[in-house]
Amino acid sequence: xxxxxxxxVALLLVAxxxxxxxxxxxxxxxxxxxxxxxxxxxTVDVVTSASxxxxxxxxxxxxxxxxxAGPCAGDCLARxxxxxxxxxxxxxxxxxxxxxxxxxGTTPTAGGEQVTYAGHLLHRFAADTTPGAVTGQGVEAFxxxxxxxxxxxxxxxxxxxx
Length: 162
Hints:
globular; about 30% strand; 11 strands; alpha+beta
């Protein structure tokens, strides 16, 4: 394999520096009832949890869907913040991520463009405080059962937890 050119190495170093620089923020934590990321950081990832491979946000927090689907406002959003995008959502690492980009999108809601996967509106569970936690799995609240999704977009029932 030929040695990388100086131009390519310089571009890679600049890209790495810009990426690291965007990882920190002097901004206080948002107190809004929805979880919002900038368009460039609106990522959907796959993490390994106690329930197997499930969808997560760019920080590793598991994403849930309510089955059956329905509106979520007020107290519902306080417990199940909507995953809202300012731009086009994308896989965290398209080369290594088993997400189906053909079913990743957004839909307009009162709070902004909510991220969807295989037609499911994506939410976080406020009580999940660590990456990969699935404490919201199987919770029955606000007219449905909250379940994480697998990379195919199927809800993962609580009975399949390992």
